[in-house]
Amino acid sequence: MHWQSVLEPQGPQAAHLHWLIVVFFGVCAAVWLLVMLVLLLGLLRRRPAPVPPLPANPASERRAGVIVGSAVGATVLVISALTVLSAVTTHAISADPSDPLLVQIRGHMWWWEITYEGDRPDHAFITANELHVPVGRTIQLELSADDVIHSFWVPNLAGKMDLIPGRDNQLSFSADHAGLYRGQCSQFCGLEHAHMALFVVAEDPAAFERWRASQIAEAAQAATPEQARGRDVFASRQCAACHTIRGTPANGNIGPDLTHVGGRAWVGAGLLPTTRGSLAAWIADPQGVKPGTNMPMVPLGADELKDVSAYLAALK
Question: Model pTM?
Answer without folding.
Answer: 0.86
